[in-house]
Design a protein that fits this description.
Structural class: alpha/beta
Largest sheet: 9 strands, mixed
Radius of gyration: 26 Å
Order of helices and strands: EEHHHHHEEEHHEHEEHEEEEEEEHHHH
Number of strands: 15
Length: 358
């Protein structure tokens, strides 16, 4: 019997026994039937897929019909999940919301994002009740999603083996990390597990931050809080902290649709994580929602300044903008022009608002 060991998530191993190979006798070689054409074709397709993947520098892509289950979603699967997005995409298929839009999102509150999404019929995009390393440090970025489930030994064995065949190295909980890019946020459904549900610790946290320069959102737990606290610029939103290491968990999906608390998260959604909670904004809605938030912020700044100065009363300005007197709207437009280069919104965007107000 031949024996082989495979590394599982949580530093577990298993041994699989298989009959040892033996050479065919001359008689057997003469009488053995030829391999079916379908099997030959599958083998050829698999070889071509591996050659193409090697040439592109990515993990091997199993050929269709090869019976290899890659937990990482294909580009076509990601495109299907995010079909409303019409802009640029990463090679893995995730929507590529621009860095400029991510930067502009910093002025947005959780309440603004939540309200704008509900107005558009998206009622399941918020998740609350988090513990963080730094409550005052916002995390914004594009979601790379991962789904974990309680371990089922035989299934975990197959998924781990197939993942290795597809080019993913090491333990399962490192596979999503290897796919992260600058500006990503690693968002994982750890089904709320705390003890033995620590998806990362200090070392993996360091690698995640070196790749993304953002942080993580885990519906589960982390370990090594002191080490993670030492990573400058890193933040984590988790259910709790625990000194245990990951056990009895298996990775079942990457770049797929997941549930975080009561929220639905798709690959490429933009994460807005603040101390009040987290809003997951579908990529195709980000630009419109950011532009709305910018207008709201500028109006609020203008109104508060005029109230401090005693120019207007709250009764004149504390109403829907459509109901405000035209003289106040004209004053707002002049205020924008006067302060265009000193506002927390890009000057070119302020000019767009001025032009629209005219």
């Amino acid at each position: 019997m031949a024996c082989g060991s495979v590394l599982l998530a949580g530093s577990l191993t298993f041994s699989a026994l298989a009959p040892a190979a033996r050479s065919a006798t001359p008689g057997e070689a003469a009488t053995r039937p030829a391999a079916p054409r379908e099997a030959v074709a599958r083998a050829a397709d698999q070889a071509v897929g591996e050659q193409r993947a090697a040439a592109s520098g990515g993990p091997a892509v199993p050929a269709e019909g090869s019976h290899v289950r890659n937990v990482v979603a294909s580009k076509k699967e990601v495109e299907y999940l995010t079909a409303e997005w019409k802009g640029a995409r990463y090679p893995d298929g995730r929507p590529k919301v621009s860095d400029g839009l991510l930067k502009r999102m910093r002025i947005m509150s959780v309440e603004q994002a939540w309200g704008a999404l509900r107005e558009r019929g998206y009622h399941n995009q918020f998740a609350g009740e988090w513990k963080t390393i730094h409550a005052d440090r916002t995390v914004i970025g594009r979601a790379l999603t991962a789904q974990y489930m309680p371990s089922s030994p035989d299934l975990e064995k197959r998924l781990t083996g197939d993942g290795h065949k597809a080019g993913h190295e090491g333990q399962m909980n490192t596979w999503p990390i290897a796919l992260l890019r600058d500006g990503d946020v690693y968002v994982a459904d750890g089904f709320g597990k705390v003890q033995d549900g620590t998806l990362i610790g200090g070392n993996l946290g360091e690698e995640i931050h070196s790749r993304t320069h953002t942080g993580v959102v885990f519906d589960g737990s982390l370990r090594d809080l002191e080490e993670l606290d030492d990573i400058k610029g890193f933040n984590a939103f988790v259910r709790d902290w625990h000194p245990s290491y990951i056990q009895q968990m298996m990775l079942t999906g990457v770049n797929t649709h997941i549930r975080i608390g009561e929220a639905v998260v798709l690959p490429g959604d933009v994460v807005l994580a603040k101390r009040e909670g987290i809003v997951f904004i579908p990529a195709h809605l980000v630009e419109d929602i950011v532009e709305e938030a910018e207008v709201t912020l500028l109006r609020d700044l203008f109104v508060k300044q005029r109230l401090r100065e005693g120019t207007y009363t709250s009764g004149q300005v504390d109403k829907g903008w459509d109901e405000v007197d035209q003289a106040i709207k004209d004053d707002f437009r002049g205020w924008l022009q006067e302060n265009k280069n000193d506002l927390p919104v890009p000057a070119e965007r302020v000019q767009e608002i001025i032009d629209a107000a005219g």
